[in-house]
């Protein structure tokens, strides 16, 4: 993309006409996150984006300016105060949790997630990344790529984001040196190639001075002819949708009375029409869709992303967690799967550990086997038996009953999962299914005790048993 | 469409609505998914209904989420006793016409101690009549999930909140240690006594709400539309003077101008704005060019820095 005179007018245009000819309300919002290491300037960058696109209201502007500014020479407020909405954040001057901001330009509407740079808060960065279509990865031109930059790039890729804007910030502080820019860009492209497919746009900019954010910096950075940050965001293609045929995890069965039984869910992939025959996984039963019920009337067809209620031609045994699928291309179905995941809590994950796994509409008991961990400094996989916090690992999942997934790269909604600690109920990892594998990597270590009811209650109440409640199976005596 | 034309309509009677833009449709689908997830996973969900425009949208999406089944949980209104009288009338009419299971709770301390936002201060009054009252109602109902219409674009601390926002058995929000929330996989695992607050409209903006109200022809309280109304100017706020609970202070004069309200709460704490916007299109045009934020007229948000976060830590919605 080349710069043209139109862009110089951008600033004035915002004031003149925010709801312009092509209404940004018409398209789906582009969701992106801003990530990178601590102090690389994330909050300043987003503050600058909001400020320069006139997205900060007057009362907030006044409040910010009244709080005094560290950036006095430019008569700008401290942008960190605009985004770091928690008291602890303002006191410490750091970002702890992800903040979501909403703004629009003449051409497009955006949701931006401002994510923390500290390694300690990687879980919150991953939260912001999981729903984003694009990542703006910030690098301090003076510091170059840091381990945390690489960690964020790896998580971004892991979460399925394939578009990255490498924002090489504080370019003014290295004298607008093109060689510094090229060196960082080259190093990042080599690292990114090791992660897999990723489209990278590198932009030299100064968030503080507002250079190449909304306003191009042709004077200062004459050697750069690419897009400004806002141009790159406006031009970014929307995230790709799954190419799989029909998939819908059953979220809820609606039975308001004897006469109606509807299967509610959000279509994960493909489309469905009245009269189409589909399969209930894992049971394999075949049914035909007789009605697509919505509040706005019955529909003939429904598409990926839509939350619908399906009615079948006959009674069938299908419940929450089952997946309705197209006949021709069934999902993976089995007892063991391979996955990649990122650990999010200090307890990490232990080999052979048992956890709750939540995937679309299902809560399953799972046992994990750790294979490898990703070495961020060497950009390669290494054998591993345990995963500490903020690690990226390859694992195998073993289920007690048949589970249904797609590969994450084929379909996000049926390929993603979270692991929940049975002790704390906290979310401790986010994972993506990569393949189905042979079951049986674990010997069956289960012990069966048959106890009278009252004694069983006592045993179950023991602290040691209670702490591992997820591992205990209860069957009523017959 | 004028305010008076806004009315409660049945599903088969919404011929005035227009097709949703892909953007609004995506927001609606996301919210429906969240509603269904909670209904499937929790034993005793409840929907906080505050009678404002966001609550109206929340209720509408809830009806769409479960149709043809009626909304499978009760609605709860925490009434401070100082709401605009038009809100109470609207609330009761809505509940009756839609056949909703509406619960109303007012903290008995209000009447017992004769509390007033004017004499006891907005901060103390809100603590008792909203935060404490909400905790009482949630405990009494033993609710394990409570839907709210809060949006992330409203306030800096709300912009940080998860869609499933975990609360301890004491209703506290630990802002520094929120659970990670990946994709649309919401973690609903809680222990007895703990709960989650659920915000299906997290990703909607004020403008989205208005576009949606227009497209779906959703009834809202008349006070959102500009009209000649009596008011007094107090502490820089425009306070509606239609209510015998308002006592004029020395020197105050009742004026009458075209005013409307951008947010609705207690009439004593929700300031009006001068406006000529008598239709939804007018309101959308007004907000699009607005230079002040939505909650600017709210007294409680200005009490002290970070006041919304503080209230939320203590259990405020």
For the largest beta sheet of chain A, what order do the strands appear in spatially? 7-15-11-12-14-9-8
CATH level 1 class label of the largest domain in chain B: Alpha Beta
CATH superfamily of the largest domain in chain A: P-loop containing nucleotide triphosphate hydrolases
Q: Any idea what the CATH architecture of the largest domain in chain B is?
A: 3-Layer(aba) Sandwich
Question: Main attributes?
Answer:
heterodimer; A: 478 residues; alpha+beta; Elongation Factor Tu (Ef-tu), domain 3; 4 domains; seven-stranded antiparallel β-sheet; 24 strands; 22% helix; 32% strand; globular; B: 317 residues; Rossmann fold; four-stranded antiparallel β-sheet; 10 strands; 14% strand
Q: What is this structure, in a nutshell?
A:
The complex is a heterodimer of chains A (478) and B (317). With 478 residues, chain A is an alpha+beta fold.
Layout: helices, strands, pairs:
The complex is a heterodimer of chains A (478) and B (317).
Chain A: H1 5-8, H2 10-16, E1 30-36, H3 42-52, H4 58-66, H5 79-83, H6 87-92, E2 99-104, E3 109-114, H7 122-130, E4 134-140, H8 147-158, E5 163-169, H9 178-195, E6 199-204, H10 229-235, E7 247-249, E8 252-257, E9 260-266, E10 271-273, E11 277-281, E12 285-293, E13 301-303, E14 307-312, E15 323-325, E16 332-343, E17 349-350, E18 354-359, E19 362-375, E20 380-383, E21 386-387, E22 392-405, H11 412-415, E23 416-420, E24 427-436, H12 453-461, H13 463-466
Parallel strand pairs in A: 1-3, 1-4, 4-5, 5-6
Antiparallel strand pairs in A: 2-3, 7-15, 8-9, 9-14, 10-13, 11-12, 11-15, 12-14, 16-22, 16-24, 17-21, 18-19, 18-23, 19-20, 19-22, 23-24
Chain B: H1 22-41, E1 45-48, H2 53-66, E2 75-78, H3 85-98, E3 102-105, H4 108-112, H5 117-120, H6 122-141, E4 145-147, E5 164-167, E6 195-198, H7 206-216, E7 227-234, E8 237-240, E9 255-260, E10 273-274, H8 280-288, H9 307-313
Parallel strand pairs in B: 1-2, 1-4, 2-3, 4-6
Antiparallel strand pairs in B: 5-6, 7-8, 7-9, 9-10
Helix pairs in contact in B: 1-2, 2-7, 7-8
């Amino acid at each position: 993309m080349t710069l043209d005179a139109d862009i110089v007018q951008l600033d004035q245009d915002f004031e003149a006409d925010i709801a312009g000819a092509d209404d940004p309300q018409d398209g789906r919002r582009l969701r992106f996150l801003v990530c990178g290491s601590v102090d690389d300037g994330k909050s300043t960058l987003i503050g600058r984006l909001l400020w320069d696109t006139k997205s900060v209201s007057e009362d907030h502007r006044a409040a910010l300016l009244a709080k005094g500014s560290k950036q006095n020479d430019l008569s700008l407020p401290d942008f960190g105060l605009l985004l770091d909405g928690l008291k602890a954040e303002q006191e410490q001057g750091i970002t702890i949790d992800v903040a979501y901001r909403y703004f629009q330009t003449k051409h497009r509407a955006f949701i931006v997630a401002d994510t923390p740079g500290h390694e300690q808060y990687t879980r919150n960065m991953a939260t912001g990344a999981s729903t984003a279509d694009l990542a703006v990865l910030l690098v301090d031109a003076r510091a170059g790529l840091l381990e945390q930059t690489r960690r964020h790039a790896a998580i971004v890729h892991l979460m399925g984001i394939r578009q990255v804007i490498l924002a090489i910030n504080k370019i003014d502080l290295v004298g607008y040196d093109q060689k510094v820019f090229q060196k960082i860009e080259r190093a990042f492209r080599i690292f990114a190639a090791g992660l897999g497919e990723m489209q990278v746009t590198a932009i030299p900019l100064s968030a503080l001075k507002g250079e190449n954010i909304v306003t191009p910096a042709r004077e200062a950075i004459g050697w750069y002819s690419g897009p400004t940050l806002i141009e790159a965001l406006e031009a970014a293609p929307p995230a790709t949708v799954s190419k799989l045929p029909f998939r819908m995890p059953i979220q809820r069965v609606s039975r308001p009375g004897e006469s109606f039984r509807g299967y509610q869910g959000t279509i994960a992939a493909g489309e469905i029409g009245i009269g189409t025959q589909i399969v209930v996984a894992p049971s394999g039963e075949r049914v035909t869709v007789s009605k697509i019920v919505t509040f706005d009337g019955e529909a003939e067809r429904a598409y990926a992303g839509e939350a619908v209620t399906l009615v079948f031609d006959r009674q069938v045994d299908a419940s929450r967690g089952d997946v309705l699928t197209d006949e021709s291309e069934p999902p993976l179905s089995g007892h063991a799967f391979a996955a990649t995941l990122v650990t999010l809590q200090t307890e990490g994950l232990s080999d052979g550990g048992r956890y709750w796994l939540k995937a679309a509409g299902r809560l399953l008991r799972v046992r994990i086997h750790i294979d490898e961990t990703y070495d961020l400094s060497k950009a390669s996989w290494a054998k591993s038996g345990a995963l500490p916090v903020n690690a990226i690992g390859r694992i195998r999942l073993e289920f007690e009953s048949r589970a249904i997934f797609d590969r994450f790269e084929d379909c996000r909604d049926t390929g993603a999962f979270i692991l929940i600690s049975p002790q704390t109920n906290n979310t401790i990892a986010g994972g993506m299914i990569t393949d189905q594998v042979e079951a049986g990597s674990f010997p069956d270590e289960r012990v069966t005790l048959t106890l009278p009811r009252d004694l069983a209650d006592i045993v179950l109440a023991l602290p040691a048993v209670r702490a591992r409640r997820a591992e205990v199976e209860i069957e009523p005596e017959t | 469409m004028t305010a008076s034309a806004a009315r409660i309509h049945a599903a088969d009677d919404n011929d005035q609505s227009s097709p949703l833009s892909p953007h609004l449709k995506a927001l609606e689908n996301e919210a429906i998914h969240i509603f269904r997830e909670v209904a499937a996973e929790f034993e005793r969900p409840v929907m906080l209904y505050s009678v404002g425009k966001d609550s109206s949208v929340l209720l509408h999406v809830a009806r769409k989420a479960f149709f043809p089944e009626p909304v499978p949980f009760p609605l709860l209104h925490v009434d401070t006793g100082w709401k605009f009288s038009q809100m109470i009338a609207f609330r009761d009419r809505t509940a009756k016409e839609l056949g909703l299971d509406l619960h109303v709770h007012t903290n008995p301390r209000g009447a017992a101690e004769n509390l007033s936002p004017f004499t006891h201060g907005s901060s103390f009054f809100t603590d008792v009549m909203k935060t404490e009252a909400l905790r009482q109602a949630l405990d009494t109902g033993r609710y394990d999930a409570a839907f709210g219409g809060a949006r992330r674009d409203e306030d800096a601390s709300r912009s940080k909140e998860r869609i499933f926002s975990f609360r301890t058995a004491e209703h506290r929000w630990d802002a520094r240690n929120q659970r990670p929330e990946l994709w649309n996989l919401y973690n609903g695992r809680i222990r007895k006594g703990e709960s989650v607050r659920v915000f299906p409209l997290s990703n909607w903006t004020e403008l989205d709400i208005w576009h949606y109200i227009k497209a779906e022809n959703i009834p809202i309280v008349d006070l959102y539309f500009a009209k000649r109304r009596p008011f007094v100017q107090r502490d820089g706020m425009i306070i509606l003077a239609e209510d015998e609970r308002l006592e004029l202070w020395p020197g105050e004069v009742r004026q009458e101008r075209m005013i409307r309200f951008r947010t609705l709460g207690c009439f004593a704490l929700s300031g009006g704005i001068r406006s000529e916007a008598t239709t939804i299109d007018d309101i959308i045009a007004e907000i699009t060019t607005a230079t002040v934020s939505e909650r600017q007229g709210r007294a409680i948000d200005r009490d002290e820095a970070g006041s919304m976060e503080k209230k939320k830590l203590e259990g405020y919605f």
